[in-house]
Design brief:
Elements lengths: L11 H4 L18 E5 L4 E5 L8 E2 H11 L5 H20 L12 E4 L2 E4 L3 H4 L4 H7 L10 H6 L4 H17 L5 H11 L12 H10 L10 H5 L2 H9 L23 H10 L4 H13 L1 H6 L1 H14 L4 H20 L10 H13 L4 H14 L3 H9 L2 H11 L4 H16 L11 H12 L4 H17 L4 H17 L4 H17 L1 H6 L9 H10 L5 H14 L3 H9 L2 H11 L4 H22 L1
Antiparallel strand pairs: 1-2, 3-4, 4-5
């Protein structure tokens, strides 16, 4: 059997993990995975060859029960719920979303259930291929946002699991057509759940099929439910059962002060519910946190390490650390443990493990931006390959304004004053930065952050030709559309000067501006808005000097009369002998070419 699934948003090592989750019968020996390509659909897929003794799907079993008008036994329902929760927890931890969970994609043998067919995940991101892959009936099992907005998150799988569970609970009542009608109606109203009289099951189902994804449970929320915890134990997955406070301990001692709360936090670090309570408390007690910043930071990092798989813990922990950074700034304190390696490591780990959670990523990169004001923290961000991590996040969420803003500013602030360590890969981030610019061309704030990030990258990275052309076009477009922003124009000119000095490709790309015309004219018009800024004149002179090194562009430079620009630059550069000499040499070369051409 070949299993296909997308590796988008995962590392190559993560994509090589098993796509099935064994339960009571233990792990079976598998053949190693290998990569293949299907030319008809232009897709590279991961193929895993494994044993598949299953002959029935859950769809077949449900059809049999429906025909016989028989209920599923309590043990079957609870085993199914436990194993599916366990399997989804495994997949979602690896940033894999199934996107098409339904009875026909669940294999059954005895009381063992396995998720199969990751083909829809393989086509995610290409809507035409996705429409070909998914059958019309599949939409019944998909969440409302998946059908209407083509938007998938890990919570989309939870909705589908709720639909499958409801089918098992009601198959002795509804025929197949009537049940599909119930699924369609559930996208508008949850009245279909009224038939479930068992209060605990009704409660779990209502958590799973909330219309608004923000209020719908994720797999970690499900694990907190007592019924689901019992199901997890039944299916042999006690490692996922949430730990609770011992008998007689009611909760954190908030009335005894911060010192006692932090002691409690470390004593019961494995109890997620208590950690979430304490983190919420720390977020609201800024004055108390200010007095014990280092202690709060250490306890918060301990919690982050103990609950790496909990997005709720990681989110609140990032907000607590933001409070600690702000508290240090107010006191003028830069030497505190919030800038140590352990903190940056915890934050980047949260970004890596929960790469598909935009709310967490927003807070994590805001924290990184705040931390990067400290030189030590900025250097740690570089050493831990944080710029590449920021690039991957930007590539995954180019449309998310807050994530993009914080990630771009983190790249700029980090690279502005720090040389990256040898072996750290940065150039791949250029493509991601340009993708953000393509998504938000009219957003002046984001385009300013884009120009700053490209400037920082141009100082530290040797671009590839394709990236140079894209970056040059992005910078020109930013200058053309947002020339009223002096910082944006300044950073764009500096970056263009670096790129034209770096490569002939940038010089050639400058010949044509976005929408037609000359890129030199775009720069000229922007410079004219700031006649008292000699730095813009210097950078434009550097651009023109670099371009004159290439015969292919000389005719265009003469045609757009750059000699006049250089003459103005010469006056602006009177106080800088080196720059004045560069301008004079460039002018002399152009005049000689013009003279030769006219004769």
């Amino acid at each position: 059997m070949a299993a296909k699934f997308s590796t988008l948003g995962t590392t190559r090592n993560q994509s090589r993990i098993r796509v099935e989750k064994e339960h009571a019968d233990g792990d079976r020996q598998r053949q190693p995975p290998f990569l293949g390509e299907i030319t008809q659909i232009s897709s590279v897929i991961l193929i895993m060859v494994m044993d598949c003794p299953y002959t029935d799907s859950l769809s077949t079993i449900i059809s049999h029960q429906r025909d016989e008008k028989k209920r599923f036994g309590k043990k079957v329902i609870e085993t199914f719920l436990g194993q599916m929760t366990d399997a989804l927890a495994f997949l979602h931890t690896q940033n894999i979303i199934h996107r098409n969970l339904k009875p026909s994609n669940i294999l059954v043998k005895g009381l063992n259930f396995r998720i199969c067919d990751f083909g829809t995940a393989a086509f995610y991101g290409d809507m035409m291929k996705l429409k070909v892959k998914t059958k019309e009936g599949d939409h019944c099992w998909m969440s409302p946002e998946s059908v209407s907005q083509q938007l998938w998150t890990d919570k989309s799988d939870i909705w589908s699991l709720g639909c499958v569970l409801l089918d098992m609970l009601t198959c002795h009542i509804y025929n197949h057509v009537a049940f599909l009608s119930q699924l369609l109606s559930m996208k508008h109203t949850l009245n279909a759940l009224d038939i479930i009289v068992a209060q605990k099951l009704h409660s779990v189902l209502r958590m799973m099929v909330q219309h608004n994804p923000e209020y719908r449970a994720n797999v970690w929320d499900l694990m907190k439910d007592p019924l689901v915890q019992r199901c997890l134990v039944l299916c042999g997955s006690p490692t996922h059962v949430m730990k609770t406070l011992p008998s007689g301990v009611s909760g954190p001692p908030f009335h005894e002060g911060l010192h006692k709360v932090l002691d409690f936090m470390l004593t019961y670090k494995d109890v997620e519910s208590a950690q979430l309570q304490i983190l919420s408390y720390l977020m609201s007690e800024k004055k108390q946190v200010t007095g014990q910043k280092d202690e709060v930071v250490r306890a918060t990092c301990t919690t982050m390490k103990a609950h790496k798989d909990s997005p709720a813990v990681q989110l609140k922990a990032c907000k607590v650390l933001q409070v600690c950074v702000d508290a240090g700034k107010e006191n003028g304190v830069q030497k505190q443990c919030v800038y140590e390696r352990g903190v940056m490591s915890c934050v980047l780990s949260a970004v890596d493990v929960h790469a598909g959670r935009p709310e967490l990523l927003t807070e994590a990169f805001l924290l990184i931006f705040l931390l990067s004001e400290n030189n030590k923290a900025a250097q740690l961000f570089l050493e831990l390959n944080g710029v590449a991590q920021a690039g991957r996040t930007l590539k995954a969420f180019p449309d998310h304004q807050l994530i993009a803003r914080h990630a771009l500013r983190s790249i700029w602030r980090t690279l502005e004053a720090n040389e990256p360590p040898a072996g750290v890969c940065l150039w791949k981030s250029v493509e991601a930065v340009c993708a953000v610019a393509d998504a938000h061309p009219q957003d002046g704030v984001l385009m300013g952050a884009v120009c700053s990030a490209l400037l920082a990258l141009s100082l530290r990275v040797t671009f590839e030709n394709g990236d140079i052309e894209d970056a040059t076009l992005v910078l020109l477009r930013a200058v053309k559309e947002h020339s009223c922003q002096p910082t944006l124009v300044q950073h764009a000119f500096l970056a263009l000067a670096n790129l034209t000095h770096m490569s002939k490709a940038a010089c050639l790309r400058l010949l044509v501006a976005p929408g037609g015309g000359s890129g030199i004219v775009v720069m000229r018009e922007a410079r004219q808005q700031y006649p008292n800024d000699p730095q813009l004149s210097h950078n434009m002179a550097r651009v023109l000097a670099a371009m004159t090194e290439h015969e292919e562009v000389l005719g265009e430079l003469i045609y757009v009369q750059v000699q006049e620009d250089l003459e103005l630059n010469e006056a602006d550069c009177a106080a800088d002998e080196d720059m004045k000499m560069l301008v004079q040499q460039t002018l002399s070369k152009l005049r000689e070419i013009e003279k030769t051409s006219s004769s």
